[in-house]
Amino acid sequence: MSLFHFFPALQVRNYRIFWVTQWIALIGFWLQLTAQQWLVYTMTDSAFLLGLLSACQFAPSLFFTLFTGLWIDRHNKRKILIGTQITYLVQAFLLGLLLYTGHETYGWILFFAFFLGTIDSFDMPARMAFMPELVGKDALHSAISLNSANFNLTRMIGPLLAAFLLSYLSYSTIFFLNALSLIPIIIAYSFMNVNSVIAPAENRHPLQEIREGLLEAKRNPIIYKNLLAAGIVSGLILNMGTYGPLFADRVLHAGVEGFGSILFAAGAGSMASGVLSAASKKHLSQSYIFHSAIACGLLLMAVSYISFQPLALLVFGILGFTVIIFMVNCNTAIQLASPKEYLGRIMGLYTFVFLGSAPFGSLLVSTIIEYLGTSAGLLVTGLLEILLIVLYTRPGQSEEE
């Protein structure tokens, strides 16, 4: 029995090409992200400044994604994705050149983090809106799950590879390697033959059309509550780039290798979750999505005071597994509930809350840790996540599937 039988999305040739080339690009992404986070931590030794780095990377999603979602609805999504990959390549090359010439400063690194986030504000909603066109609705849950498995497999490999390579290579070389890793996916997008759904242009003010997308999300409780839950989990739980280096250094006393191990463990759990989800065409009910979000907060609270590294890594692995169960099913539920003509705008809104909550989450979590200490700060963060999920996203009887 072939592998394609277990994973419906892999039966689509274009998706197979996308999946392989995306794997290569994501390895480069994790090399750069890990090196950049550790570079800033070693430069500043500050939880707040490390959080500010994440805030700068995710802030553009707050500013731009509501507008980019409408723009995506009006244009060919495949061509947009070619453009974003080329721009990612330029960003990585310029950042590498900055370090190679010895002109790096904390301010310049913040600028390039903002530049990267600006590209994300176009790429992420376009890629999510492109998935139904690439695989169809029947294989959409499988595709989202495989994308997650891909992301988290590379999250396992990339940080460890970065920690190893940084013993032999400069930071600038790591960034140049990321630029090279984007070439295969640019070629893949260029040769894909996919019919893109383009909503007809209307003679109305863009703000009115954006407002219609917001109203569509608000009147549909599945979209509305999943968007809120995604923002809460993203802002408070997924900021491992903010609290991971601090936990590795101050609780585990394991340095950059410990940070890489945390990301590896979380990635392993996430990858396992993604692979299991990818074998199914169906997504979980709203009740399961709600309870998996609660479990994320409980697991962060559980790990907060664990200083024994193997046990901490085990809990981070379970956290990674649970987060992806939540995110895959949350994303799938939103996409299936969204009308085609609004999909770009809804995915822009999803990106807005998913990435846009990260700057506030990064600053909030880093500030809590700065005042309470790493362990107590993570305990409070996990408790806060649970309270917000319970208060704002509890599913009603009519939303159960």
CATH topology: Growth Hormone, Chain: A
Low-pLDDT segments = none
Give the class from helix and strand content and strand pairing: mainly alpha
Number of helices: 16
Quaternary structure classification: single chain
What's the total count of β strands? 0
CATH architecture descriptor text: Up-down Bundle
Supply the CATH class.
Mainly Alpha
What does it look like?
The structure is a single chain. This protein is mainly α. The chain has a single domain, classed as Up-down Bundle (Growth Hormone, Chain: A). Helix content is 81%, strand content 0%. The chain has 16 helices and no strands. It has helices spanning 3-6, 13-44, 47-73, 77-100, 106-135, 140-165, 171-181, 183-191, 206-219, 221-236, 240-251, 255-278, 286-303, 309-337, 343-372, 374-393. The longest helix has 32 residues, at 13-44. The radius of gyration is 20 Å and the shape is globular. The mean pLDDT is 85.
